[in-house]
Amino acid sequence: xxxxxxxxxxxxxxxxxxxxxxxxxxxxxxxxxxxxxxxxxxxxxxxxxxxxxxxxxxxxxxxxxxxxxxxxxxxxxxxxxxxxxxxxxxxxxxxxxxxxxxxxxxxxxxxxxxxxxxxxxxxxxxxxxxxxxxxxxxxxxxxxxxxxxxxxxxxxxxxxxxxxxxxxxxxxxxxxxxxxxxxxxxxxxxxxxxxxxxxxxxxxxxxxxxxxxxxxxxxxxxxxxxxxxxxxxxxxxxxxxxxxxxxxxxxxxxxxxxxxxxxxxxxxxxxxxxxxxxxxxxxxxxxxxxxxxxxxxxxxxxxxxxxxxxxxxxxxxxxxxxxxxxxxxxxxxxxxxxxxxxxxxxxxxxxxxxxxxxxxxxxxxxxxxxxxxxxxxxxxx
Length: 381
Hints:
Elements: E1 3-10, H1 15-31, E2 35-37, E3 40-49, H2 53-62, E4 68-69, H3 72-76, E5 83-86, H4 93-102, E6 106-109, H5 117-130, E7 134-136, H6 144-155, E8 161-169, H7 196-212, E9 215-223, E10 228-230, E11 236-238, E12 244-251, E13 256-262, E14 273-279, E15 282-286, E16 291-295, E17 319-320, H8 330-344, H9 352-371, E18 375-376
Parallel strand pairs: 1-3, 1-5, 3-4, 5-6, 6-7, 8-13
Antiparallel strand pairs: 2-3, 8-14, 9-12, 9-18, 10-11, 12-13, 14-15, 15-16, 16-17
């Protein structure tokens, strides 16, 4: 007979919970009869927590759930729910997670785990002192293309890694014309925690380190390409955060890479994200779903003619990295790893220390941009 495991889902009406955590992870696990952990099945029992009861009821009905709550303290006092997940307002996260830990809950949290590094260090210390388990969402490393790139790098076929290039971005409309912005306006307001650096570079931390190894230091520059945008009410507002960033990243291994990210660029790449890695033994390029490889043995001799277009297709000689494993949604993979960690002590995918390091890279990039200098990761974590 299956056992239940109670999970409080704070911020259940948030976009990330409704796009990913509920429909792609928790609800499918419930509908499949639970998750097999050590030969037993554990079915999530969800308590949807938020501030708006009407929205909570709509979300619950959408997924066939029936338990909602608007009182955080009352939810935390319920012993039927030993796990607390937070996808609520980022600015409230340190306080909410601290209360959950003090209430005896194991915690799993969306990113960024904190905005201030000292808050993160305090949470880790508290969780350790109380003996509570903790996890952080790091979903992008489970994307099919990046899984293939990681497998390729770990196979040794690339040899010693010398350099890499990560390019990400697409055009976010300003909202002045017929097409509204595709991202919420708070992303472009500093007082609301907006800005590309703190939004995307925490992702790039675990992607780069998960595939290539630890980051030593970074130098970066962020800027605002579109100084005015139109919010959800149709009102123009001044953008006071960065919407574009370029960084040079040096790894502990000595490899050096360039990372560019922008919400003001038009795509002329194979994907919205491309991650190109060069090694002595070969090179690999990954997108969100695909990955291509060119070993040194088949690397062609190239030349150019300034007077004539030689018509060379430089993608010839590259081979697609095959799919060797079935790929699952990254959010589900994270949930499965965390639940197995809580129930059976299995290794977790990422914890608060990892989440804090994610934030540290975002902070390092921000400090570098403001002060015009290299920032060592050891300065921050």
